[in-house]
Amino acid sequence: MTGTKTGAEIIVQSLIDAGVEVVFGFPGGQVIPLYNELYQRADDIRHILTRHEQGAAHAADGYARATGRVGVCIATSGPGATNLVTGLATAHMDSVPVVALTGQVWTNKIGNDSFQEADIYGISIPITKYNYLVKQADQLAQVIKEAFHIAATGRPGPVLIDIPSDLQTADIKPRKVGPVKLPGYAPVSKGHPRQIEAILRALKDARRPVIYAGGGVIASSASKELRRFVEKTGIPITTTLMGKGIFPEDHPLHLGMLGMHGTKYANCAIFESDLVIAMGVRFDDRVAGDVHRFAPQARFIHIDIDAAEIGKRLAVAIPIVGDLKAILAMLNEKSEPVGRERWTRKIAALKEEHPLTWEDDGTIKPQYVIKTLSDMTRGEIVVTTDVGQHQMWAAQYMCTTEPRRFMTSGGLGTMGYGFPAAIGAQIGCPDRTVVCLTGDGSFQMCIQELATVRMYNLPVKMFIFNNGCLGMVRQWQQFFWDKRYSHTVFDYNPDFCKVAAGYDIEALRVTEPAKVGEAIDRALHTDGPVVVDFVVAPEENVMPFIPSGRGQTDFFGEGDE
After folding, report:
1. CATH (residue range 193-353)
2. What is the pLDDT of residues 194-234, one digit of tens each?
3. 55, 86 Cβ separation under 8 angstroms
4. Helix, strand, or coil here: 324?
5. How far apart are CA 539 and CA 542, in angstroms?
6. Which H or E run includes 211?
7. pTM over 0.90, yes/no
């Protein structure tokens, strides 16, 4: 029909208009019209075929974290859509901008238990920032524009758009897309001037201040402003897992990560502080296990774009809602250095007294592998991790000097995240070396994505910490369950080198500490993808360790029976 377009044409054009250059997905019956249009617009928008929809969601997430742009994934109806759930929940917990497009059965068949029908709209409500079930084809362009706006503004997050198949084939006359007007959705950017003045007064009065910063700094692209603030005021800084890289970790004012497996000196510094300036964090239970014993002498300043996070877990003396980049710019204009030589000396003493370390017993220690990688690359690579012990060792020993160089599943703790996220990061940053740090348990969650890196010849380096068990769960069983290792020790693991060979991917197996550096160097200087299987000590534990619910300085092993 003259002057008309199909719904699928409108969808793809809307993605292009939103600046999308790449999408990750897996086709199915209810998205065939959309895939037909992607085929015809292949010169304008690139599609990466993953081997599982969960891989597509995590790859879109990794792309978004690495680039700062909205990641896009596509799945068909029913199981295709539900396979996105873990990836969407991961992005939601970590405030990552992702737009997911799902196919749905025809509009007149919804609610009839049709083949491959699932209420992904209802399922995804708790795990998305917003979602849509589109009922009219002429609404598609406006909905997609709104979805990208919602995903990327305020506190970022995933948005799902469920699109019935008959809307994708419908011939419609395109409507002009208007401005985004969403009643009730108006994220605050600038902080209130009176609250800014209150912060400045508190900074002058404090004698033992500490900055506690997290992923919100990355979301607001405020790392430069944060560094200026830290160096101007001379206040030491500790970060969350999600905040790695927001401030150079080799800087003398950096205290490392805070919380359950954070550095002792970061936890001790916060415990002794009289003022905590929290920026883009949510005081989660892995940091503030017992809120009554978290920084008991301190007043709290909390800066966050999401008002719901302020006061959620502990009382805040000075709350300020707004975008960190704007607020830090205001603070930098008016803040002044305050001499705190005694506190500076105390911080230096804590770092010297409680260094991160491990015992060398002749086996390959994961800490040694990560520290060697860190020293060899000097913060120049992009690192993704899976979840478990290796994740915490990476947080401790991988020195990260810039934002968007370290990506991990923090809030949801998703095994299987790291490898497909590395694929997304490599697609988004083709000129950077991307290394995925994973465990033998986590790697097998999305091992099929080896086909994806081979198909697109993505030079992702996969470092497996092979300890023959689910290490973090085993650690808890060792300490608190009388070493009853119930189903956490693998009686069988595949030969990862042979698996890699089956995908025509180079692989190395390392069993001796002396060979670690050589293997890392070879992997980093190989053009294509590489799997390195490090056979590591099976009962190595992550230390320091503050068990759940304990006070901030109640480190395991100190006073325990």
Report:
1. 3.40.50.1220
2. 999 999 999 999 999 999 999 999 999 999 999 999 999 99
3. no
4. helix
5. 10
6. strand 209-213
7. yes
